[in-house]
């Protein structure tokens, strides 16, 4: 009888830890939500600004776009990491949820704030763009010539898998060898993924980054691809890290804490 009662209590405790109601009702959680909104706002504004064509004959290069996004995320991770973990990406939040490093309510709340921040970033970018450049769009992601829907989903899943796997590795509190390297490692991962995938899909690896320009421009064609691919890749990475790559030391919540 005692064993059955203990087992029931443990199950209830695990459910509470997964849901995370106590965490999201704290006042400090509002600051974390603001950090996620601000971080995604800046990421989309700065990153998508690098995709704008100023001279028709010389559009921005893949390397230019890749390093802009990579350096932007590295900067944001350094500034906002200790506050919210600087997910700034629904795929990262859900990947950490799968690995047990983020509660359900926190992941959902983060996702809402990330999407709002991305839309606001795209809106401000459009507002401050010269009229002549607005015809070139806001850096929306789209499939490359000849790339099928399945190919696009697979590519987005792969590059997001890599990103979320690196996020888990460099923010694992049980690994001392990666301490202090999180912003650089994650930024370089994003840059590398962009160099490989921009011709394929525009290299979103972030559903919020795709949603922002789509909402402001009103073009939603194939936007779902940039949700299915990254979320699938992020969740797979979270599961793989939890099952086979996690250190055996005591658990703790992963974040960009240095």
UniProtKB/TrEMBL annotation:
UniProt KW Transport keyword: yes
Family matches, as InterPro entries: Aquaporin-like (IPR023271), Aquaporin_transptr (IPR034294), MIP (IPR000425), MIP_CS (IPR022357)
Membrane topology: Multi-pass membrane protein
One Pfam match: MIP
Transmembrane segments annotated in the record for this chain: 29-56, 104-129, 149-170, 182-203, 223-241
Annotated keywords: Membrane, Repeat, Transmembrane, Transmembrane helix, Transport
Domain of life: Eukaryota
Major localization listed first in the record, in broad terms: membrane
Subcellular location: Membrane
GO cellular component: plasma membrane
Keyword Transmembrane: yes
Gene Ontology molecular-function annotations: channel activity
PROSITE patterns, A to Z: MIP
Complexes and interactors: Homotetramer.
Protein family (similarity comment): Belongs to the MIP/aquaporin (TC 1.A.8) family.
Protein name in UniProt: Aquaporin AQPAn.G-like isoform X1
Species of provenance: Dinoponera quadriceps
């Amino acid at each position: 009888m005692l064993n059955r009662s203990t087992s029931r209590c443990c199950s209830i405790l695990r459910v509470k830890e997964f849901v995370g109601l106590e965490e999201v009702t704290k006042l400090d959680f509002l600051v974390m939500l603001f950090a996620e909104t601000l971080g995604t706002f800046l990421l989309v504004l700065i990153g998508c600004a690098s995709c704008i064509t100023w001279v028709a004959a010389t559009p921005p290069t893949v390397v230019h776009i890749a390093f802009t996004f990579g350096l932007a995320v590295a900067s944001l991770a350094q500034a906002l990491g200790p506050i919210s973990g600087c997910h700034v990406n629904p795929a990262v939040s859900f990947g950490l949820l799968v690995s047990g490093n983020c509660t359900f309510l926190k992941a959902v709340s983060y996702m809402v704030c990330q999407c709002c921040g991305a839309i606001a970033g795209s809106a401000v970018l459009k507002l401050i763009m010269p009229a002549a450049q607005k015809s070139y769009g806001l850096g929306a992601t789209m499939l490359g010539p000849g790339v099928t829907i399945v190919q696009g989903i697979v590519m987005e899943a792969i590059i997001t898998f890599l990103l979320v796997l690196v996020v888990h590795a460099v923010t694992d509190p049980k690994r001392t060898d990666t301490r202090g390297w999180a912003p650089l490692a994650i930024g370089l991962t994003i840059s590398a993924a962009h160099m490989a995938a921009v011709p394929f899909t525009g290299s979103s690896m972030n559903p919020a980054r795709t949603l922002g320009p789509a909402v402001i421009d009103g073009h939603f064609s194939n936007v779902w691809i940039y949700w299915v691919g990254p979320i699938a890749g992020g969740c797979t990475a979270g599961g793989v890290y939890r099952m086979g790559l996690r250190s055996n030391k005591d658990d703790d919540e992963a974040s960009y804490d240095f």
